[in-house]
Structure formats: C-alpha cells, structure tokens
Amino acid sequence: MMSRVQKGMVAGFAATVAVSILEAVNVFAGPWVQPFPSVVATLIGMEGNLAVGWVAHFLAGTLLLGALFGVVCPKLPTDTPETKGIAFAVAAWAVLMVGVLLFGDPRMFNAGGGFAVVAWMLVTHVVFGIVMGNVYARLVNRDKRAHDMSGAAAAH
Prior knowledge:
This protein has one domain. The protein has helices at residues 4-29, 36-43, 50-72, 81-103, 115-146. The chain is an all-alpha fold. The protein contains five helices and no strands.
C-alpha cells in the first residue's frame, strides 16, 4: 500500500511524461511556442540549456507537484479526480505566472510568442492535471480493492 504522497508522485510522473510528449512534439516539429523546459531553464538561471530544463521539469512535476497533489487531493472541492487535477494544475500554473512576474523576467515570453507561450503552458497544465487526477484515482481505487474484506472468511 502506497501513501497518498507516493501515489501523488507516481501520478505526477505519469502526468509529466504525458506533457513531455506534447512538449517533445512542440520542440521537434515546431517549435510553435517557446518550450516549457526552456522557460524552466530560464527561470532557474540556465537560459538555453534544454537538458537542465527537462530535468527540472520532471523533478518539479514528480517530486513537487505530484507529492503536493497527493496531500491536497482529498481536500479539493470538485467531484471527479480529473477536475481535482485540473483545479490543482491551474493553480500551479497561476503560481508559476506570478513567480515569473515577481522573480523572473516577463520579457522571456517575447522571443517565443508572448501570449501563445502563456496559453500553451495553461493548456499543458490542464492536460497535466487530467492525467495526474486520473492516475491518482486509479491508484487509490487499486488500494481500496486490495483491502476490501467483503469476501473474506470469518476469523473464528
């Protein structure tokens, strides 16, 4: 049986993989907008280093957002796991945007398309939330089924 944090980290990793596939298409077929790993690398002071951006992207999606989602998921106000994931991911996107405005350089979006980058990041965060919520719910349900004692024999 995994803890909620562990389930969140597994779900965060799966969601990061899903978003990374979208980002890989953007990087290798386009790029249509500035890739998110490039934004992350710029935020941490390693502008232009996509490898560092990819690593930071996976670490943040798995260890930070995934673990945090595992903690707050039961408290989120929506009904379905996917909408819980969307609400969480959009909140994370909003924190990221505030972080860029307060600590980063908002002009970093100018080279890659301005509003298109912000919109792309919102869309990918929504996808991240859907996948994370779905995987997290599947892990929770798996643990519930594993501990279901309804068909067990009596102890005495």
